[in-house]
Amino acid sequence: MSNKNILTIGITGSTGAIYGIRLLEELKRLGHDTHLIVTKWGEKCILMETNYDLKDVYGLASVTSKDTNMAASVSSGTHKTGGMIVAPCSMKTLAAISNGYDDTLVARAAGVTIKESRRLVLMVRESPLSAIHLENMLKLARLSVVMLPPMTEFYTKPQSISDMVNHAVGKCLDQFDIDHDLYKRWGEGS
Q1: Which of 84, 32, 22, 91 is nearest to 57 (CA)?
Q2: Segment 19-59, tens digit of pLDDT
Q3: 82, 112 in Cβ contact below 8 A?
Q4: What is the pTM of this model?
């Protein structure tokens, strides 16, 4: 496993845990290594929103760390990674990242990703968005952090929730130039 190719995946306590799980599944299927961090509330969302067992979710990753383990490899910039995706990203985590408040491993790993000029993608989940949420997103977007809320698209004529989840996950993978077949691209026929 090459550290520079490993992607850090954070799952936080916002609705949409399936995005992080599906991302792990697809990255594993495609042969990519992952370092998974799930917050306490992320674990609760997995159990409330999905039929997945936590053991199975953790088993999808190459490496796992507890959100309280501030000595984990991804807490240091000397540990090279290919970047990080937080899916879903709660507004609490967004606020911590945008203000450099590294009180959890997810926030610390994201901060390291920013300071080392690596790609950071946040699948922010909230609706409606307040001015505070928007200001936190703008602050990070100005630092080249990608805000990628899982928006439903209809040009691919999704037939299921899985189709919509796959599209959002595919959009994340696109940010890292990872080839996938999760959805038809615009202009690829009807």
Answers
A1: 22
A2: 999 999 999 999 999 999 999 999 999 999 999 999 999 99
A3: no
A4: 0.95
